[in-house]
Amino acid sequence: MSYNRRACVSHRKNLDLFHNIKKPTPISKDTVNNKQFHATHTYNQWHNYNKKHIYSNRLGISYDVSYLANGYKYLHMYKDRRMYRKRLDNFCSHHSDSSKRSIKQKSRFQRACRSIFYNRGNNKKSHHSVDNLEDKLHRARQHRFLFLPSQHINKPIQHLKYHKRLVLRDEIYYNFPIPPESLGTRAANTWHDKLGIWIPNDLFPYVTDEPVYISKRQAKLKGQQYAPGSMDWLKGIRKRKEAHELAMRQQNDRDASEAARLLYEEELSTRAKLWGTSSNSIEYREEMTKDLTNFQEHFHKKITTLTDRRTVLQNRIKQGKSVYKSNKQLLQLEQELGLFKIDYFSVMDDNAYHYRYKGHTSDDTKKLEFRPHKRPPTSSTNTDRHVTHIKKLRSDTLPTEDFKVFTSP
User: Fold this and answer.
1) What does the pLDDT average to over 382-407?
2) How far is it, in rounded angstroms, from Cα 201 to Cα 192?
3) Is the CB of residue 387 less than 8 Å from the CB of residue 380?
4) Where is the stretch described as Disordered (predicted)?
5) Span 246-267, pLDDT tens digits
6) What phi and psi values does residue 393 have, to the nearest 5 degrees?
């Protein structure tokens, strides 16, 4: 090939096709063209940070090509064993002048863009154009095509791959240089003395003497196992880690639930002591008291409107203002007061949980709620009369000693 270019290993047999050029470059018989040579050359390009500037006379565009090494993340997260990837960036178009060459180059480039954005290929069902920039960038990544200055594309190199087992990541197992472990492999791994392999730090605590079987059936039969260090073996260890983390999360949830329950019971116990009842009855007592208070406030609001109206009518009668009309309204109002009644459950919700309270009061609750000095409830139904209970009546007669003092001469 011209300009001392070399074909890859797969196309080495076709080199004779390119000898019919005007100025052929003689190929030396000492030229080495094998995988080791290409791997070493790629390694040097990456290690020396070399960038190659590509210019297309046909399309009138240019871009840079550099080599990047795939580190730990590509191997263990993406399951990608390829060593290197090409980075295409720094795109620039040269269609500024109005010469015939520039016009033709621009026309060819636009035709290439339409071919990419129209999803070129033999499958006509997938031929549909895209309009937005996001879809265009997606098509360009699929076809490794640059059309914007801010765009970059990573193109993996297929013919240089790591071995499947991590133990073979060392350079001694290859006949060409490879990227060092400092990219993230050895720094993020720990050497297992018994297995003789490097294991990721996050998986190392879960590596035990128990093997990783290829299936559940083989695990029951104690049969076929994955080789330690293989990708499937690491995948099994990662599943073991995920199962352990799931069990830990569930245990933490149970512990948190138990702690919340104990805290709630302690709060109930504190409230029950203030109410003089048990923890089992405190919520029932509180809700019943709240409903009774709300009902009394509602009753007071309704009855106050009627009593205030009665006071106004009585004052008007005393002042002699519209006596006939006021007496008639007062009589009607007294009838309303006589018939005034509010159903308790018309205000309260009888479907509340404390109204569905079943069973009798427990002995512990009865003991806590026992009031030996509590006043007996009044049996009077007169709402206008205030009944007071006198604990001890005062005698009208003086005691004998006092009587002697006042009657002595």
Assistant:
1) 47
2) 11
3) yes
4) 364-388
5) 999 999 999 999 999 999 989 8
6) -80, 140
